[in-house]
Amino acid sequence: MHRLWTARSAGLALGLNLVFSAHGRILTSNAQLLPTYDYVIVGGGVSGLTVANRLSEDPKNRILVIEAGDFDQDEDSILIPGLAGTAVGTQYDWNLTYVSNPDAGDREVSIPQGKAVGGSSLLNRMTLDRGSSADYDRWSALGNRGWGWADLFPYFKKSETSTPPSDELVAEWDVGYDESVHGSSGYLQSSYTPWIWPSTKHFVSALTGLGIQIPHDAAGGDAVGGYFTPHNQDPATITRSDARRAYWTAASSRPGLSLITGRRVTRLITKQTAQGAKVTGVEFAASEYSTPKVVKTSKEVILAAGAIHTPQLLQLSGIGDPAVLSELDIAVVADVPGVGRNFQDHLYIPVVFSCDFPLTAANLTANTSFAAESMALYNTHRTGPYSDATGDFLAFLPAESFTTEAATLHSLAKDQDSTTYLDPDTPRSVKENYAIQHALLTDGLIATDQAQIEIIWTDGTFITGLQHPFSRGNVRLASKDPFAAPLADSAFLRNPIDVKILVEAIKFARSVVQTPSLAAFNPVEAAPGADVTSDADLEAYVRGAAESLFHPSGTAVVGTYELGGVVDTEFRVYGVQGLRVVDASVFPMLPATHIQSSVYAVAEKAADAIKSSS
């Protein structure tokens, strides 16, 4: 405390007043900034706040986090689990869309991304699952030593404080829990919902009746089959536990940590040295009309802006593929062809049935009395429909579990030229990296330890997600204007294997509702519709209905430079000193999971890498 007040007094004497509030050490004007920080972190979302928290454990570090958005105001749409996802489209969302995609009906698909302190952890549906061990072992199979499941597993545990399911939940739903695979001292709260929509029981029964396994606790790397998943939810208050409330709040009073909001980083400041380019600071501005401000860094700039804005900032700063940069007459600071390439996102298609369930989530919007009673129950006892973020029971299925065409799909993939569906201007090194990925994806089609689809069930609706897309897109600049949204091309469904997998998933959903457990509720197919039966018609439905599951990644991939890597295994950007990337941009391949917990784990790993080199 003495150090804190000494630092604050010195700041006041220099006219560098700092605001201390419930939010902590927040700067409210550029005049309060120090000229130089040890670390400048670009982005105050999951990865940025995780790294900021861990670096600020050393009181000697001076750290500045720059966030384009602001703090949320504890709105119900943020905090109440039953309203999770309703902050999408608000001021806390960048409100981005992917570019028009001819392989997805020429549509511009929405891609929500958090623009607030806490980032996308404020917008998501609070699912806190992990992929299977095989998913992360693929990362190390691409030549990334120290990036396999065994390497990441301690960081999954480090990030969380896990609360087991209640005795009531275990008794009614048989939720398995293995204490050894969960963390007990992390900042993020992980717990199970106190209330589950009753139709879920019939879905679970339908899957088990089809022979789908239920692992005891999928968090230990056996994330294949159907299982109950925890949420990032405080078990005491039954409210969202996000990066702001977990990682920022715990670190906000540390003397070396500062945060400024409402500022967008527009450029990395670099200089040329005998060893190559070196980042010396960042330029940022509150708007395109305000005067830019520069702060310097004595150690590193850490990019945590997400898989869309991180490659945008690298390219604006002259770090990327010279052929792409030359199109906008941007001088090359570092030749890193992989920047913006390897773009991946999970996508889904809905398969919808109307069923005669007596109680469904639709009652919350269709029945005002039920909604009012449910809110009263939540406010007084923290249970009932508003205590549930949905997605309590997830199914992650290998191909053999949902289709008889696994061998055919595998054969089609083996016969493909891996370059056929890549962008024509894809650099050679990126093509070579993808060739290895393609082989791993192909093997995965006949593997039993890797899920190809996810099913999220809600009262007759199957949200059917493609987990290991073969398609690869890119992110590139629309212009040299840093306030212009970049051109993010998801390449959804470009590779026809992705379409064929989803067609098989539709057929599987239809078979699930015909099991005795669900057929008793008289399902009537609303989408794609019972009259849509041919593979050609189903493919057309898939292309017209596909939407994002909000998991963009891969645009600043970890890997060797010769294979299109943007960062090395210590998160350092090739060809540039003093620069790292710590967000989902570094993921080589998407794991079969909602990626929130993976981003926390990778950021925890990044923090250790930074600390070990300082």
From TrEMBL:
Domain Glucose-methanol-choline oxidoreductase N-terminal: 306-320
Signal peptide location: 1-24
UniProt keyword Mitochondrion present: no
Record-linked InterPro entries: FAD/NAD-bd_sf (IPR036188), GMC_OxRdtase (IPR012132), GMC_OxRdtase_N (IPR000172), GMC_OxRtase_C (IPR007867)
Origin: domain of life: Eukaryota
Statement: the UniProt record of this protein carries the keyword Transmembrane: no
Protein name: Glucose-methanol-choline oxidoreductase N-terminal domain-containing protein
